[in-house]
Amino acid sequence: MFSAELFTQSLIAGIVIGIIYALMALGITFIYSIVKMINWAMGEFYMLGSFVQYFLVVGLLGPDLWWVAALLSAAAVFLVGWLIEPVLIKPMFTGGIERRDDYATVVTIALLLLMRNLATALNGPYQRSPGTNLGTVMLGPLPESGARLAAALCALAAMVLFWVLLKKTWLGLALRASSQSRVGVQIAGVDILRLDQVAFGIGVGLAGVAGALLAPVFLVFPTNGVVTTTKGFEIIVIGGLGSIPGAVVAGILLGVAESLGAAFISSPYQNAYGFVLLLAVLLIKPSGLFGERMRHA
Amino acid sequence: MRSTRHPAWIGALALAAFGTAGAPAHAQEPITIGLIVPLSPPGDPTGGQLIRRGAELAVEYYNQKGGVLGRPLQLSVQDSQGRPEGGVAAYRRVVGEDKAIAVTGFFHSSVNIAVNELAKNMGVPTMSTQASAAEITSKRYPVAFRTHAIDPLRVAAWLDFMAQKGFKRVSIVAETSDFGIGLTEETQKQVKDKKLAIELQTISFDRSSTDLTPQLLQVKAYKPDLVVNIGVGQPMDLIIDQATTLGILPTTPMLVSYDAPARPQFWQLHPNNGNGIYFIAYYSPKEKLSELGEWLAKTYQAKYNEAPVYGSLNGFGDIAIIAQAATQAKSTDPKAMVAALEGGSFESWPDAKVTFPKADGPYWHNWAPPVLILHFTKPNQDWKEAEVVIEYGK
């Protein structure tokens, strides 16, 4: 039976989780737009961020300084990405590799397995939670967890900061130029390989901050990044591969579709509604909501 | 001359050395028991790890006593990830490659059900340690055995609990696994058969979902007297946390469908909302243990610095039963093992003999411990101090 209150609650819950989904997808689409590769290990960088957050909050800073821990977690994951890129990703452009897509797929899947198994070996399979002192907040008729709301607000802030970085800084200009033409930026004197390294670091750092913010909400364990990868790829296909506004809009659409679908159609198929949305978008606009057709020389 | 004499001399030495040592070396070949447990998500890795601890201690126990049939015992541990296909591949490996004489450790019902379909053809017996779906034994496969509480017993226990507490409106939030669906259907069936005045709301969810707010909003709108949480592993914890956020807990009591709250990590995950939780358990520390059980409790405490929970006790017990069956059969042949399990009487961790009668329905080849409902009455309470609300089937 339809209930206006349940509808409003489900809609708000869907928007909140959708904003969080958008943050999960932003890193994937950003790396694709610059480095022209799909990073299949993105969920593992999310997992790494959640573990760093857990150890910082429990072992060092305490739950009140969760936001400091989240910033440090993002920085730590950025650093890991920044260090990994020259070893694993750079040879894609410097090693005379012909089939770059295949190379990127194999390398990032290997990285995924390595990181996941390393986490299991070091942590054991156990679930952990950094805990939170943030209480429940009323969002209209919906009681929402303080930690989840904080994650959504921080996700919005991270997206705004990211937008400012892209639109208002020299680095952002270089990144945007690189996404349009890798050859063009090299002619303009930009070190494209260094730019790739920074872009990879920023992309995985975004996944890391998502993991850190969601650690008290979805818990910390070696395979908690699986959902991030699945939702992330759904979102970038719906929004358009490489489109940042597309990732934000598609994230919210996915969150709302899942929430309303589970509440009013059938709850066991919660994860299927996203795929229905994906198929519908692909039927209407094969390049995604904000995607553009690629031109090849 | 040299060339002919030398090999003869070496041959004699070799015969002396290996001729006598060869036979015992063959006799000393270890007996392998397969252990298929979830060690990573989407399964419940903690559940798998606890069973593994008990099973490893059982191997240690028997090897200290000289092994089984004069041969050392060893485990082949495989991670099912809680996925049926993972379990089937693992069974094939332990039986085909490692020549396991029996396979145990099952935690997720869907894994055990899928493996039994293969086991009925390959012939090596399976022993369910903590998988409870009725279907595991109700198909009456000669190779399927179980030492765990089945769905009908668990449901009967919680219906008694609902009657005792006067709960009339109950929400069941269940994952779409054999365990979740089986328990939901069994509850509906028993409520109807027993003509109980209990109104049920049943909501199911995909166990890979992390946001269960939409499901729990429906629960909240229903205004139940009790919520039955049938999530296993991470979903069980997420339901507790997300129900707290929505204000369902602590106002509405929650019953967890298995013994996860007895695990040491429970209070680390739920320091502020674990109090008041009811949960199913299969062992009370007030219960008398057998000699084997006492050995395990003492060794486990010394090794892990905590008391064993049911998963470890039953993981230990199942290896002990398989070892005793091989001894009674005087063979590791699968058919002889099945016959020994069917006809024998075994010692496990409880102070009662374990048998596997050819009984009707899900009671086929099934020995079940009593089903308890425990209740945390204060924060950070040791599960051994939890209030025993219901003790069913003793």
The beta-strand count of chain A equals 2
CATH architecture of the largest domain in chain B: 3-Layer(aba) Sandwich
Strand order of the largest sheet of chain A: 1-2
> What is the share of helical residues of chain B?
40-55%
**Cα separation of the termini of chain A:** 56 Å
Number of domains of chain B: 2
Total of helices of chain A: 12
Radius of gyration of chain B: 24 Å
The mean pLDDT of chain A is 90
Number of helices of chain B: 13
CATH H-level homologous superfamily name of the largest domain in chain B: Response regulator
SSE arrangement of chain B, N to C: HEHEHEHEHEHEHEHEHEHEHHHEEEE
Could you explain how this protein is built, in words?
The complex is a heterodimer of chains A (297) and B (394). Chain A is an all-alpha fold. Chain A has a domain at 26-225. In chain A, 73% of the residues lie in helices and 3% in strands. Chain A has twelve helices and two strands. Chain A has helices spanning 4-35, 42-61, 66-88, 91-94, 100-123, 146-168, 170-180, 182-187, 192-218, 226-239, 244-264, 272-284; strands spanning 136-139, 142-145. Chain A has a two-stranded antiparallel sheet. In chain A, helix 2 (42-61) crosses helix 10 (226-239). The longest helix of chain A has 32 residues, at 4-35. Chain A is globular and about 60 Å long. The model of chain A has no long low-confidence stretch (mean pLDDT 90). Chain B has two domains: 31-149 and 288-363, 3-Layer(aba) Sandwich (Rossmann fold); 152-281 and 372-392, Response regulator (Rossmann fold). In chain B, 55% of the residues are buried. A seven-stranded mixed sheet of chain B has the order 7-6-8-9-10-13-14, with helices on both faces. Chain B is built from 13 helices and 14 strands. Chain B has helices at 2-27, 45-64, 84-96, 109-122, 135-138, 151-165, 178-193, 213-222, 234-245, 266-269, 291-304, 310-329, 334-343, and strands spanning 31-37, 73-79, 103-106, 126-128, 144-146, 169-175, 199-205, 226-230, 254-256, 278-281, 346-347, 353-354, 371-375, 387-392. In chain B, helix 12 (310-329) packs across helix 13 (334-343). Mean pLDDT of chain B is 90; it is low at 1-26. Chain B has 394 residues and is of the alpha/beta class. Chains A and B meet through helix 1, strand 2 and helix 11 of A and helix 2, strand 7, helix 8 and helix 9 of B.
